[in-house]
Design a protein that fits this description.
Elements (H helix, E strand, L loop, with lengths): L7 H25 L5 H9 L7 H12 L4 E3 L2 E5 L4 E2 L2 E9 L5 E8 L3 H12 L4 E2 L8 E2 L5 E5 L4 E9 L7
Antiparallel strand pairs: 1-2, 2-4, 3-4, 4-5, 5-9, 6-7, 7-8, 8-9
Length: about 170
């Protein structure tokens, strides 16, 4: 049997390669798993149950789902894999990019607005009432959270948008 030795630089390069592959696999695996704090952090924000801070949510989403896959329409878009809120699949979460006078967080649910409203009401006790009698009405909660039609009625978008606080005086 012939034993071949590997030089220290080659061994170091191999270890670095294996570690980077393992880190990439762990990152991909983390993106497929829903963080245990998705409901309390993102779900509560979508229901307008606290402050909406674009930088905070960008950082939180980046830490749990990786870099945004696009930057469009004044928002950073994050894919959420197999995530769900209120028992409803959620495929994307968006956060404002600070180019707008509003700070906002939004999510795309894989169900029509009426089903999302029922799920939110059953799980969180928050009602979203239709704003008019049109075929595609917005549904708004008392706190200001809004459910809208998205993608020809097969999906819905839920969001909370608030005016940014005034800057502190010097």
């Amino acid at each position: 049997m012939v034993v071949q030795t590997v030089s220290l630089p080659a061994r170091t390069a191999l270890v670095s390669l294996l570690l980077s592959c393992a880190a990439g696999a762990a990152s991909a695996q983390a993106q497929d798993k829903q963080p245990s704090t998705l409901g309390p952090v993102i779900g509560s924000a979508l229901l307008c149950r606290g402050q909406v801070d674009n930088r905070y949510f960008y950082s939180w989403l980046s830490a749990h789902f990786g870099a945004p896959y696009k930057h469009e329409g004044g928002a950073y878009w994050f894919r959420t894999g197999e995530a769900s809120l209120w028992g409803t699949p959620v495929s994307e979460v968006m956060v404002g990019d600070d180019t707008n006078e509003l700070a906002f967080v939004a999510a795309v649910a894989e169900v029509p607005p009426d089903q999302l409203e029922q799920a939110v009401r059953a799980a969180a006790g928050v009602r979203h009432l239709a704003t008019d009698t049109s075929p595609y009405p917005l549904r708004v909660s008392h706190a200001g959270s809004t459910i809208a039609y998205y993608s020809a009625g097969a999906k819905s978008k839920i969001y909370c948008a608030k005016f940014k606080p005034l800057p502190a005086r010097p």
